[in-house]
Structures are given as C-alpha cells and as structure tokens.
Amino acid sequence: MAVCAYCENAVIWDEEAIRSAGKQATLPEGFSRLYRGATGKLLDKRFHVLGRVRYSFGSGFWDEWYLELHDASTAWLSDDNHELALQSPLEAPVEPFERYQPGRGLRLNLSQGSFVVQETGQASCLGVEGELPFVIQAGESYAYVDASSPDGRLSLGIEYDAETPSVFLGRWLRHASLELDDEGSEW
Known about the structure:
By secondary structure, this protein is mainly beta. The chain has one domain (27-180). It has no helices and 14 strands.
C-alpha cells in the first residue's frame, strides 16, 4: 500500500490488480524527529523511512515507522511518547488476547527468554502515509499486547490484527542510537 503525498489517495497493489483505497486521513506532525523520507543511521545501520502508521490507544497515540535498511531488509521503529523500539517480525505461537494481563509474565518458549506484560488494549488506526507492506485504513482497530524483558532491554509486541496474530521482537533504544542525515542543519 502507498499513500500519495500530494493527493493523499491510497493505492493498493497485490498479485491480482492495482486499485484505489480512497483518501486517507492527513496525519499531523507528532513529537518525533522522524518523517517520511528521512534517512540516517540507526545502531550504525543506514535506513530510509518508507511510511508511517499512527495508532490511538484511547488516551494518546504512537507512531510506527516502516524502515528500509541498507541491506534491503525492513524493520519497524515504534515511537511512543519519546520511547523508541526497533522491531522485526517473529514467528511464535501466542495465547488468546484475554490470557495476557499487565504485570504478568509471558513466555514464548523461544531463546529470547521471558517478558512481563506492560500493557494490553485496543489500537485504532488514525491514518497512514507513505509505503507500507500491508493494507490498513483509518478507523480499523485490533487488540494488542506490549511486553518488555525483565531487564528492560527487549520489547515484544503482539497484534491481534489477523486470524494469526502478528508478533514483533525488538529492542529498546536510546535516542542517541538514531542519527538523521539532516539533523542540526539550518532550515
């Protein structure tokens, strides 16, 4: 899916056809240093921001930035209240959403170890911009679980957005890990 920066119309393409998905909500700027088209280094890896999804959790919002890395792989950078987590998809079986409660432990039987559930809730898409590897429309919602490792270094997100939930494993980053090419330039 791609959203035209000029007309804000979303275009979806798959194996069968290219079709219009209609006009998307214009996303106001947030509190992030990132923007669609930004380039820079993250943990000493070059990146280019392809797109963004903004989600609401009811009393606030967070942005998920879709990045293309220097080796043509992709990743997601979650930017929530100035906290950054670089995340990649992970194949892992998960429990039904109702089984996870904040403060409880979570184990996926993987080498990453255990996690503690920080938050559960409903995410609602406020809008999208740029290119994304999936189709999402403003107003769509899904249940989510956010967790962290006991030492606070790793993040784990579970999104109940399809028949099979999506799992993302990541690591929390310091803001110094993110360097934009145009940072510090005059405007």
